[in-house]
Write a structure and sequence with these properties.
The complex is a heterodimer of chains A (about 110) and B (about 120).
Chain A lengths: L3 E4 L2 E4 L5 E7 L7 E6 L6 E5 L3 E2 L7 E6 L2 E6 L9 E6 L6 E2 L3 E5 L1
Parallel strand pairs in A: 2-11
Antiparallel strand pairs in A: 1-3, 3-8, 4-5, 4-9, 5-6, 7-8, 9-10, 9-11
Chain B lengths: L2 E4 L3 E3 L5 E8 L7 E7 L6 E6 L6 E3 L7 E6 L4 E6 L8 E9 L2 E5 L3 E5 L2
Parallel strand pairs in B: 2-11
Antiparallel strand pairs in B: 1-3, 3-8, 4-5, 4-9, 5-6, 7-8, 9-10, 9-11
The chains are: A mainly beta (about 110), B mainly beta (about 120).
């Protein structure tokens, strides 16, 4: 199985900060990577697919980059509604696997 | 609009089975696979399996192989997830989602399954 590792495990930031989250795959997954945002008590929402494609309706302050084994999710200017947990997921091959999640907290 | 509506909260005893339904609407049912993901309390996301409503093909995570069965009912656009041999560590929120080539673009609201004696 392909292992996905996210860093850091927790991130404290302020409104307006530029935030970058990293996800590493244990082997090359090309661009077959998605990012999800999950708020407490809610189902996750897809925000980025194919490593850098923004899902419809997602604000443009979110962006994704990377290929192969290293990927990043960037929030250009953190907004109050962005405090949440973020997961990466590979879909290069079954079983689909997720990173452990990164909680973005208010500093 | 695309919607996935799941059955309600369920409580089971250890060793029992549970079946969770997921009714899809707002898109062509046979054009997209459905995946299931679970999330234990305070934990991360774990992919369980995948089914193609087009031909019934399934894929399961090794962790659940032999205990999970996914089925579809095309006339009612419903997907079912059955998990057998329940243990206390199966207590979790179970999500069905539309699998768009691996990107999970629409999620059901989740079904809480509690396993306790």
């Amino acid at each position: 199985d392909i292992q996905m590792t996210q860093s850091p495990s927790t991130l404290s930031a302020s409104v307006g900060d530029r935030v970058t989250i990293t996800c590493r795959a244990s082997e090359s997954i090309s661009i077959w990577l998605a990012w999800y945002q999950q708020k407490p008590g809610k189902a996750p929402n897809l925000i980025i697919y194919k490593a850098s494609s923004l899902e419809s309706g997602v604000p443009s302050r979110f962006s994704g980059s990377g290929s192969g084994t290293e990927f990043t999710l960037t929030i250009s200017s953190l907004q109050p509604e962005d405090f949440a947990t973020y997961y990466c997921q590979q879909y290069k091959s079954f079983p689909w696997t997720f990173g452990q999640g990164i909680k973005v907290e208010i500093k | 609009q695309v919607q996935l509506v799941q059955s309600g909260t369920d409580a089971r005893k250890p060793g029992a089975s549970v079946r969770v339904s997921c009714k899809a609407s707002g898109y062509t049912f046979t054009s997209f696979a459905v995946s299931w993901v679970r999330q234990a309390p305070g934990q991360g996301l774990v992919w369980m399996g995948w089914i193609s409503p087009y031909n019934g093909d399934t894929k399961y995570a090794q962790e659940f192989q032999g205990r999970v069965t996914l089925t579809t009912e095309t006339p009612t656009t419903t997907v079912y997830m059955e998990l057998s041999g329940l243990r206390s560590d199966d207590t979790a929120m179970y999500f069905c989602l539309r699998d768009n080539g691996g990107a999970l673009d629409y999620w059901g609201q989740g079904t809480l399954v509690t396993v306790s004696s």
